[in-house]
Input
Amino acid sequence: MRIDMPPRKPRGESIIPMINVVFLLLIFFLLTAQIAPPTPFPLTPPDSRSDIPAAARDVLYISAKGELAWNDARGAAVWDLIAARQDAGPVEIRADAATPAAGLAGHLKRLRQVSDAGAQLVVSGG
Output
């Protein structure tokens, strides 16, 4: 008497290679991403229609109330640090949209007094 073996179920495709690729992509994006430091206080930048990104490395933050921040310095100590910088690259300014124009103009005048590096005002694309 001949007994036939039951047909075997076909083995499904392994998803291990796909998981490996996903993890490699995750690692790649984590290593190549540029993580920006958080702003020292909440900012809402004004809108802009320009597509040209700012190229400065140093950031001067100006709040809606006129508060200044540069790295860990706050207030008037910011100007001493800007004046003492070694490189002459432009200063990137990130001001809140609610910052009065007169206050921003005063800060730009003070920046011109302490540094000849120039400035770039950063706004959001709109």
Q: What stands out?
A: The CA atoms of residues 38 and 71 lie 10 Å apart. Residues 47-125 form one domain.
